[in-house]
Amino acid sequence: MTETTGEKDTQYQRVVSKGPLPFQYIKVKLEFEDGQPRDVGESQMKALISGMIKEIYGEVGCSLTSDVLKYSLKDCTAILRVTHKNLVKVWSSLTLCSSFKGEPCAFRVLQTSPHLMALAVNSRDLDF
Asked: Which CATH architecture best describes the domain 39-115?
């Protein structure tokens, strides 16, 4: 839809979104019971996430796509991309994770958004 203003012949386009966006982005952190970070590689993180989805949802869960877009080895933080319709299933699978290589751990969901740019800054971490 193109509309014009009365003064100048400037045109702008109004875009109206109906329904959810196709992807959701989740920022998660793998925390261990003693609070010390571990050397968990990106491939190990992806395997842990896929394993948890498979454990909870079986073979059907293997078809759920979750991509690790960014991973920080320093603090075991990852940004995941999942389809909107599978967000609840992936989130619940992460919530039920209780161990990694025999050590107690838990996933903490730090942020979630349908827009990747929204995960760039966390307003809770800003100093005023």
From this structure: 2-Layer Sandwich (3.30)
CA distance 76 to 10: 48
Q: Domain-by-domain residue ranges, the chain?
A: 39-115
pLDDT in tens, 43-100: 999 999 998 998 888 887 777 778 999 999 998 999 999 999 999 999 999 999 888 8
- Asked whether the beta carbons of 119 and 111 are under 8 A apart, the reply is yes
Could you read off the pLDDT of 6-34 as tens digits, one per residue? 556 678 888 776 777 899 999 999 999 88
Burial (0-12, 13-18, 19+ Cβ within 10 Å), 106: middle
Residues 6+ away with beta carbon under 8 Å from 122: 110, 111
| DSSP tag of 35 | -
pTM: 0.77
